[in-house]
Amino acid sequence: MKHFLNTADWSRPELQAMIDEARRLKTSPYGDVLKGKTVALLFLNNSLRTRTSFDVGAQQLGGHAVVLSPSGGMWPLEFEDGVVMDGDAEEHVKEAAKVLSRYCDMIGIRAFPKFVDWEEDRKDKILNAFAQYADVPVINMETITHPCQEMAHVMALQERLGPLDGKKFVLTWTYHPKPLNTAVANSALMIAAKFGMDVTLLCPQSEYLLDMRYMSQAEQDAKANGRHVHVTHDIDEAYKGADVVYAKSWGALPFFGKWEEEKPIRDQYRHFIVDEEKMAKTNNALVSHCLPMRRNVKMTDGVFDSTNCIAYDEAENRLHVQKAIMKALVSS
Amino acid sequence: MKHFLNTADWSRPELQAMIDEARRLKTSPYGDVLKGKTVALLFLNNSLRTRTSFDVGAQQLGGHAVVLSPSGGMWPLEFEDGVVMDGDAEEHVKEAAKVLSRYCDMIGIRAFPKFVDWEEDRKDKILNAFAQYADVPVINMETITHPCQEMAHVMALQERLGPLDGKKFVLTWTYHPKPLNTAVANSALMIAAKFGMDVTLLCPQSEYLLDMRYMSQAEQDAKANGRHVHVTHDIDEAYKGADVVYAKSWGALPFFGKWEEEKPIRDQYRHFIVDEEKMAKTNNALVSHCLPMRRNVKMTDGVFDSTNCIAYDEAENRLHVQKAIMKALVSS
Amino acid sequence: MKHFLNTADWSRPELQAMIDEARRLKTSPYGDVLKGKTVALLFLNNSLRTRTSFDVGAQQLGGHAVVLSPSGGMWPLEFEDGVVMDGDAEEHVKEAAKVLSRYCDMIGIRAFPKFVDWEEDRKDKILNAFAQYADVPVINMETITHPCQEMAHVMALQERLGPLDGKKFVLTWTYHPKPLNTAVANSALMIAAKFGMDVTLLCPQSEYLLDMRYMSQAEQDAKANGRHVHVTHDIDEAYKGADVVYAKSWGALPFFGKWEEEKPIRDQYRHFIVDEEKMAKTNNALVSHCLPMRRNVKMTDGVFDSTNCIAYDEAENRLHVQKAIMKALVSS
Q1: Superfamily, domain A149-314
Q2: Can you give the pLDDT at residue C77?
Q3: Taking a C-beta distance cutoff of 8 angstroms, is the pair B122, B144 a contact?
Q4: Subunit contact A52:B40, Cβ cutoff 8 A
Q5: Cβ B75–A292 below 8 Å, yes or no?
């Protein structure tokens, strides 16, 4: 039995096989590989795309999704071993995972960071606890990484570009009024490196570098592919000759939990918006964002609504890759 | 592709064909016209009947419903074009509509007015934005009109009365401790006129007239059928000879957003309750209400529990007409 | 038509037949007895196991569950007959029950006590109102008793012990930082007596006795089986020779609604925890808890994680017995 927690746990050929299967499912969506099977979807945070696409995907493969959320479907959970549970938690994650495993054939988890202490959040405790205790495969529906989004993104790129090796991939930080989760940024960095692209991380200053765990993973994968991960704060240099521009905002890790201190820094960088002028410097690059996206803050209407933007395809591909992932896990 | 936003967009024969189909589905409920298809149901407000009947209806036609709500299934939405999204909204309705269209085959929307500014609420922005941007049919599950309720009501009337032309239909305002949405009142007025009835709108004083858009639509439809829309504040005159009494409470539009000023006016009219004494003046009229209904405030137990009351049939018919509507849209 | 409100309404052979059917369904889970049918699940309180197991169970029998909750699926309800509904309630339970009966084939209700006035809570008004007004079978998904849990527990005991007659069953109160519902305790007492066990109720002092309605029912059933219900405050006496230990915490009824007065009493009895030392006095007893359970507060990790603990089996059996119950009701 194998979980789908992070793409780093899977080889590039394994991931490519899932993407190939997703392309088959895109043209021929129905099947019965999940017939009689149920996927529990635990949402500890909001969701539109993930909730809908997993539910629809399970259904199209003959299965059924049960959506659970803390308002209604969950008791407050304890994650530590051996603890005397006389605080707020009514149930140990061990029981939640073991019991759901008796009812369901797969468990999806969405659990965003708490945004107070990155040392704590980076342990990804909820996801890892479910993976440890569940007797069925667990899928990461976004925690501190977002591997389903990665897969949908690569699928959308391959649909337009074919093989990705040697393409220049730019992950650009953009302004957003609030500090956001680094999950999609971490994921974009890793998957771009894994699939053989030359990766440029563009961010305003060094405080916006991502967690070393993900930087190192990307560097290691890039090296194995004979490519590089390059960090820059120079907008022109980053965009020049880019084949892919991926936009995302995130909070600076050194200010984690002290967000009021980060605000004046972040507020200087509204000009990191993806706009027509910057895109003109690229190699007619494809551009995308994971959605939801604040228009004219992260990307101009002009860029987003252009034919170079593959954000809707990427969003649609969530459905297809997640079906392929569920298929792979259920037969693993 | 056609949406089901308002009955005014459809001809009487088209609506009658859906009601006829609903009557067939009432005796033979199962089918596979939605096989492999998903309906997204977006509830921005509470629902018991609508949520259950759409979900059950989709299922009975071989399909599947995904229920989304702001607590869990939705990000705060932006509706304006070209805006710099640096406020509360995290996602533009365009993306929500486009992405849901990639996953689902139909989208139902419930979005009540905000009750602050009728000039704003009467634009019905959420429904219209989804209709504009979605690539799949959109169904109004109650916004500032409630066309599914209209259809269920006409179906229930036809089941008991046969053809409705020339019947006297009375829409009576009733007291309710809070100002309510005019949606069902607007809808009742329009559908009664469209189906050839002589319509009487009974309300306590002119401030309770409905929006001119709906008054005019009803007058125009009544005229086309050789009938009339008559407004009165005289209870006896309204009930006299009525064939149908439809009860509903609503807030007075001139006091929209200034509800504390309306309260002393509204409080004078508790005697607009539908009771046995008033019903005795009718032509043994059928009586109904869209539910939920405050007993002994809007209608006495005696009237509601009488055999003249068709409220449960009307509620049940929601299931049947909505199935007919989904069937019509999916094949349009 | 029969409801499943309390096991007291069903004979031991009837209940045994459902458990036997549940054991068949455990090995052969799929069927079509609910094909085309819908179960409405009304949750007025949180749920993980109940929500998931009913949803999965309906699906495995070919049916469909619609989950409704006050945040989204329900209007505030009125329960009294003949009342002028000018307070908070927007809908009478009569309409909710009648209308759901038009859409669905069964209705499950979870409605915990309000914890203010036991004389009021013990009327079990919500469940009884639905049972009174619904035109389809109603299932108790936990109110002031929890009959589905009882059935799952007996099934798990029989799987390990075979016939239960004459076994020593100990229901032990345990500490919990908050006063909890007596539902599972009431249920455990009754089902143990009904299935022929000698029942010992262990609680710290007489204020923790359960409602006389359930004490009497258990005594009457025990007597009919030639057995006894024995109350003790002596831990050693209770555990000695026990074949089954069932742990549960609950609030003392004489302090109902005055919980701050109960707290200093309850706080003296942390030592009622089920631990290895106490278990050593038993006849190698099976031990269980209905979940969620606070580890090392109600039961030590050592006991809970031992092979004598059947809590996960009991939780799993919820799925199987509920399917058997739905099957029995739909054909009744």
Answers
A1: Aspartate/ornithine carbamoyltransferase (3.40.50.1370)
A2: 85
A3: yes
A4: yes
A5: yes
